[in-house]
Amino acid sequence: MDSQNNKQTGKNKNFIQAFGHAYDGIKWVFIHERNFKFDMACAVITMGLGFILRIRLEQFMWLLTAIILVLVGEILNTVVERIMDFMSDHHYDERVKVIKDVAAGGVVLTAIFAIVVGLFVFVPKIIELLN
After folding, report:
1. Cβ distance 72 to 103 under 8 Å?
2. Residue 58 belongs to what domain range?
3. Catalytic: 74?
4. pLDDT, tens only, 75-115
5. Which amino acid positions bind substrate, per UniProt (predicted)?
6. What is the pLDDT of residues 107-126, one digit of tens each?
7. Does residue 59 sit within a domain?
8. Residue 2 included in any domain
């Protein structure tokens, strides 16, 4: 029997199986996508700085929201890139370029949002420390 015949193609049997596949996807993005690793490093540094500066719970929630948006944006951008590369068989096509650029633009917008949130949270704390 061909090993390809043993691969799952239908719905997940239960939540645990679905969660396992989702975990595999996040792990794959972390291993293979440089920008996702960078974003995760920024997330760890940001949250660490939040603990060091003793920011309020509401501020942590804003930071966490911004971080999650960036990470989800990176994952969705990766999905779009992989689909478009597959569909174009890795050949240049202006339409594919536009689609990939638009997806990347979405990630940039979430990153800008995250930076703005970080500035609103950290700048007043840093100014307070300096005074």
Report:
1. no
2. 14-130
3. yes
4. 999 999 999 999 999 999 999 999 999 999 999 999 999 99
5. 74
6. 999 999 999 999 999 999 99
7. yes
8. no
- The verdict on whether residue 74 carries a ligand-binding annotation is yes
Q: What is the 3-state secondary structure (H, E, C) of 25-90?
A: HHHHHHHHCHHHHHHHHHHHHHHHHHHHCCCCHHHHHHHHHHHHHHHHHHHHHHHHHHHHHHHHCC
Q: Are 33 and 105 in contact (CB under 8 A)?
A: no
52: domain CATH number? 1.10.287.3610
Residue 33, annotated as binding a ligand:
yes
List 58, 74, 94, 128, catalytic entry: 74
34 found inside a domain? yes
Structure tokens, 26: 């996040």
Residue 125 resides in a domain: yes
**Per the annotation, does 81 bind a ligand?**
yes
The one-letter code for the residue type at 111 is A
Count of domains forming the chain: 1
